Sequence to fold (430 residues):
Amino acid sequence: MSRTVLQALRRGFLENVRFARTAILAHKLRTFLTVLGIVIGVATVIAMVSMVEGFNRSVAQSFESFGATLVQFQRFDPQFGPGGGQRDEKQRLRKHLTYEDALAMRELCPSMRAVSPERYWFPSPRAGGQIPLATYRGREATPDTVGGVTEAYLDANAKQLALGRFVTEADERRAADVVVIGWSIADALFPFEDPLGKRITLAGRRYTVIGVLEEQGATGFESTDAHVLLPFSTFDRGFPWVARDFGVNIATVPKSPQLVDQVIEEGTNLLRQRRGLRFHQPNDFGIMTPDKLIGNFRAVTDGIAATMILIASIALLVGGVGVMNIMLVSVTERTREIGLRKALGAVRQDILIQFLIEASALALLGGTIGVSLGVGIAALVRNISPLATATPLWSIALGLSVSMSVGLVFGIFPAWRAAKLDPIEALRYE
Fold:
């Protein structure tokens, strides 16, 4: 293609852009009302993607705080929703995992660096109702969880101590009345003094504080700040119904990150053997890893995002119909102008491109406003609420591309109608 032809095409394109700009500026209110549907649709998509993406990143970081190589064996498959979601009959009839299962893993699974059997008393009717207050000299704190753990807990769950020491094998062996408390529990009960060595009361029993867990903050998916942890045997003595009704969770970590799959395989084979499963029977226990949790959570948030995008698509459809109607009005208003251009040598292709560019410019204007509004909403949510938001560049590019596509698709019919006008009839039009 010669340089002269390229220059002619460039001049023609710029001329059509000027036509589009003149038409848009001549009817500002009509232009705004036309693109309002596109603005709403694109803004909704950008804001929703920003909130979902930010939430996903925040939750992923929280899950990874468990430890990137954590493998937890438990009675149920990991699920989201109130009470772990609706479980089928087969899951509800599963046998509990036991402390003896954990001991067998510790002895027979060579790839595991740490094996941590854990019991938890959550505030639910099945687990004995609401957890009682922890008290000390008239001050009170509300634990969110009371747990029974062994010395392997910190290693298996990637947790750290801020003060004191953790539960030892000796504490567990003699069922010592000692306790490790979360940061917020310590702050509520001992705001002005060292908690170590103090005796707190929980469920009518007194325990000596031997350690305080490192602060995690309120944004973590599984924060230990309001946890109260007892030696495993001490917990069983104080809360025997938890062992009967809930069994144990078994948290494990491999000796090296490369052995995660081997840990899963060894633990699975051992539990299948101990639970008497035949080769053709599926596992009757759950396996939780950070990657699996993140994948399950993303499936939920992606479903929410898809629903919102569907709603936004309706707004985009309305906006596209608005663009088409206004372009049809514009064709009618400018019939004599089209006839004049054709009389001066413009061909159908020139008229078609002119009106397609105008429709695309309208839609792109709506998309640009929508992107700006969506980014602004995401920033506002981030600044006035604890919800993290993140606007990926691909969502901005997608918003602008979709808006332009809407303009092109819904601008075709008006542009085609303008292009096929007879120049003589168009010049006679009043």
User: Anything to note?
Assistant: The longest strand covers residues 112-121.
